[in-house]
Amino acid sequence: MKAIARRTGTYTHQIDVREHRLGADEGLDVGGDDDAPNPQELLAASLASCTAITIEMYAKRKGWDIGRIEVEAEYTPAERGAPTRFKLLLRLPRDLTSEQVERLSVIAAKCPIHRTLDGEVMFDERIELVG
Q: What is the pTM of this model?
């Protein structure tokens, strides 16, 4: 998987992922134009959407019609000596059985973004000078 961010404004960037285009910017309070979510908000959005899709895919495989679901992800960046903290709120239909709710709760923590954030991450960085 690959994403390319290209500067289009002060802190505004166009992000290309496959054939899709989205944006990232910083808020007015830090000198950006607030034209798009900031990168940390995009991280929370990735976790929320991945969790929701994982729940939906699991329910579909089980043949469960779970209707409308919603996942809220709140992200508090790490401060010195403290861990990064994510709060997830799963909003599921009240007519699900307790067994379905329990299973979906377990499955939610298995989404690829959740597992990535929960695991060890390594970076391979390099610089390429362009003209």
A: 0.90
